[in-house]
Amino acid sequence: MLSRILGWLILASPVVAPLAAAPQPNIVFIFIDDLGWGDVGCYGNDFIDTPRIDQLAAEGLRFTDFYAAGTVCSPTRCAVQSGQNQARIGITDFISGHWRPFEKVITPRPTMALPQDIVTIAESLKQANYRTAYIGKWHLGNGPQFHPSQQGYDFAAVINGPHLPGQFRVPGQPELKPAPNQYRTDFEADLSIRFIRENKNKPFFLMLSPYAVHIPLAAMSGKVEKYREKAKTTNRSLPHPVYAAMIEHCDDMVGRIVDAIDEEGLTDRTVILFTSDNGGLFRRYDYQAAADDEVSDLAPLRGEKGNLYEGGIRVPLIVKYPPMVKPGTVSHEPTISYDFHPTFVSLAEGSLPANQTIDGVDLVPLFKHPSSRLSRPAIHWHYPHYHHGRPASAIRAREWKLIEYLDGSGDIELYQIRKDIGESNNLATQRPARSKALQSQLAQWRRDVIAAMPIPNPGYDSQRAHEWWSPRTGSPVPSHNRKRFPPTEKDL
């Protein structure tokens, strides 16, 4: 893995002379759904072909210790838009959330939309005279009053539906139609490129948030067959060939966006960022025998989407901006999704909202000097829900990470994360003073943000505690009805 990463960094060309940074650079923010930390080549993947993403890293800055603010989608999206840890707002689970009615604790219901009085990243940039666009998955409120067009985005195309041709659409905007037989990421790229070209003469902010690589898995058959054959020749069971194909679709999308920026002569005036909303998926949270295929291997990380181990929250972050970011550079500084809001405002020479707490910090100093350190003492997570684990909070303070479970067990886990990225050695009993100090800091942080907490469940039933129910339908989740093998377009 290390040799592959180094190989991509060797491709980078040295900077002969620094360019002058644009006073208000364009910002293109590519926000993949459920992409794991090790799912692309420049982060060590040796199975999936991601040449354009790897090139982006070779030409820019790669963060090794970047984290999603949430372990599922809506919390991280909330953090990105607000610049706040989502616990302040209450969007601590995906909207509309999980429900295990017979478990030991009753978990809090998430706030069901991003409040309209929150000043979003788009609204902050509009104050700096940027044109703004949002394309793809939103998942921060379903009503028209919560649409991104009502949250500062001049152009907003919220796309609903699965990945394959004919299965997705832009509700309420019939003029925005995909071409026949068009895959969803290709359509999202088309809309993005059109916005870039129409706004090339003014500073713009584009947030591209595809539904890929979220389940249900689906990809075009040519790419799927490529990875099925590759799996046979390499004797690999993971990642799933359809999942691998979906990541390559995303790589194609990234390539098209980068090429369009180059063609319009915007390369030296555009910051391109690539990241994910949470960690990767091994398999569905409501898995039952023969219900779904396994999706991806998260090794060397432990855990997956839906828990607070590294596999659930550590994700890629790549930044390319030639006037400021030296190619082939790497930062090991712990950073997190709510840092984007103040960073983008700094790049735009704008102002942060005066009456809104901003938990994030400006990452521009790291763009310029990747080996530098931030003054922030810790970053925090709060996921008081059942999913791929138990309700928990977590704190990372430099090299130390503590997870505290909120299901009444009193369990804590302590890891020296720099030395133990796989979280295999729980040091909580060996380092009681460190554990107590971090647990106290975490508790104080929860009080400061008024984090919603689980409460004991008087209806606890140990025989039924494993049952998943839908908050929307008030009935059990029918996971036994799910197709075992994800489709390709041949199956339509």
Attribute tags:
492 residues; alpha/beta; 8-stranded mixed β-sheet; 4-stranded antiparallel β-sheet; 11 helices; 25% helix; disordered N terminus
Task: Give structural notes.
- Strand 17 (469-470) and strand 18 (475-476) form a beta hairpin.
- The model is unreliable at 2-6 and 8-17 (pLDDT under 50).
- The strands form five sheets. An eight-stranded mixed beta sheet has the order 6-5-7-1-8-9-2-10, with helices on both faces. A four-stranded antiparallel beta sheet has the order 12-13-14-15, covered by helices on one side. A two-stranded parallel ribbon has the order 3-11.
- The two termini are 38 Å apart.
- It is α/β, with parallel strands linked by helices and 492 residues long.
- The chain has one domain: 3-Layer(aba) Sandwich (Alkaline Phosphatase, subunit A), CATH 3.40.720.
- It has eleven helices and 18 strands.
- Helix 5 (184-198) runs parallel beside helix 7 (241-263) and helix 6 (221-234) packs across helix 7 (241-263).
- The radius of gyration is 22 Å and the shape is globular.
Across the major sheet, the strand order is 6-5-7-1-8-9-2-10
Oligomeric grouping of the chains: single chain
Q: What CATH architecture would you give?
A: 3-Layer(aba) Sandwich
CATH superfamily membership, which one?
Alkaline Phosphatase, subunit A
User: What would the CATH topology be?
Assistant: Alkaline Phosphatase, subunit A
Helix-residue proportion: 10-25%
Q: For the terminal residues, how far apart are their CA atoms?
A: 38 Å
Q: What Rg is obtained from the alpha carbons, in whole angstroms? A: 22 Å
Instruction: Give the SSE order as H and E letters.
Output: HEHEEHEHEEHEHHEHEEEHHEEEEHEEE
For the record, the count of structural domains works out to: 1
Helical stretch tally: 11
Strand content: 15-25%
Q: Could you give the count of β-strands? A: 18
